[in-house]
Design a protein that fits this description.
Layout lengths: L29 H26 L4 H29 L7 H7 L1 H23 L1 H20 L11 H12 L3 H16 L5 H20 L1 H4 L6 H20 L13 H9 L7 H9 L11 H6 L2
Helix pairs in contact: 1-2, 1-4, 2-4, 2-5, 2-7, 3-8, 4-7, 4-10, 5-6, 7-10, 8-10, 10-12
């Protein structure tokens, strides 16, 4: 592939996949096109969702419309995630490195979903008006559910939907929770597929991002500085998904993710630019507080 610039070989010690994943310019091959086009529709709407969230000023009618719209989009995002996971874990290629190398357009879309997810949750958590309005409307939905009272007009929400929306916004990071649950659901619904097919794709993606960020030869190929923050979000996103799906998580000694290396990459960025991502590792992972987690890793995240 013309846009794949493989210039390093795997190390004997960690067997890290060292190749350049073109997050900026990857285009779908014919083999990727069907899934790519399905997901592209969702990703185009993702940009509008972020714009709406960033522009949100706070109003009763506005939040009533937005809260349902954002929830419904989370369901579309989960479906898109499943489509990508099916493609990237299939038996088309022998291992996840081959999938990511040869299906770069799909890998790029997977990365864009993770980037959107962390960005959405960052905006939600750092905007008090949004937080307060979501909390208020969640309480309203709970009352509707308890009293079996539907909403009025075109935004009518039935009991079942009100309950699901309420649970969605109850989480501090609702979009990330959707992806974590969605990945877990994908694994449980595809029992004929070895769990390693999924966890290895996630760990490989984390390793690729880490290597590209810490290797000057790769990093110099980014044409935009925004690609650095994109890569950082993607790396953190796949770590969190891996931690939820893998039986012992991302922080265990047997993890295929170099957590010390990934945290060091985050720590090496300009001060305060990655605090939200470090907090995501601190507070939204599943296994960090396990007794088996290396004390040095815990100390790096303090």
């Amino acid at each position: 592939m013309g846009n794949l610039l493989k210039v390093l070989t795997c190390t004997d010690l960690e067997q890290e996949p060292n190749f350049f994943l073109d997050f900026e310019n990857a285009q779908p091959t014919e083999a990727e096109r069907e899934v790519w086009e399905q997901v592209d529709v969702v990703l185009k709407d993702a940009c509008n969702i972020l714009d709406e969230l960033q522009a949100y000023k706070g109003a009763g009618q506005e939040i009533r419309e937005a809260i349902k719209k954002f929830y419904e989009f989370s369901q579309r995002l989960e479906a898109a995630l499943h489509s990508l996971l099916r493609a990237l874990t299939s038996e088309t290629y022998d291992d996840p490195t081959q999938h990511l190398e040869r299906e770069q357009a799909l890998a790029k879309q997977f990365a864009e979903i993770l980037h959107f997810t962390l960005r959405f949750d960052e905006l939600k958590m750092t905007n008090p008006a949004i937080q307060n309005d979501f909390s208020y409307y969640r309480r309203t939905l709970n009352r509707m559910r308890i009293n079996n009272v539907p909403a009025e007009g075109e935004n009518e929400v039935n009991n079942e939907l009100a309950n699901r929306i309420s649970l969605f916004y109850a989480d501090a990071t609702p979009m990330l929770k959707t992806l974590s649950d969605g990945t877990t659901k994908f694994v449980s619904e595809n029992k004929n597929l070895p769990i390693e097919n999924t966890t290895d794709v996630l760990s490989t993606m984390a390793s690729v991002c880490k290597v590209m960020l810490e290797t000057p030869e790769y990093r110099s190929r980014f044409t935009s500085e925004d690609t650095v923050s994109f890569c950082l979000r993607v790396m953190v996103g796949v770590i969190i998904l891996y931690d939820y799906v893998h039986p012992v998580g991302a922080f265990a000694k047997s993890s295929k993710i170099d957590m010390k290396g990934c945290i060091k990459v985050l720590r090496d960025q300009p001060p305060n630019s990655v605090e939200g991502l470090l907090n995501a590792l601190r507070y939204t992972t599943k296994h960090l507080s396990d007794e088996s987690t290396n004390k040095a890793i815990k100390a790096m995240l303090q």
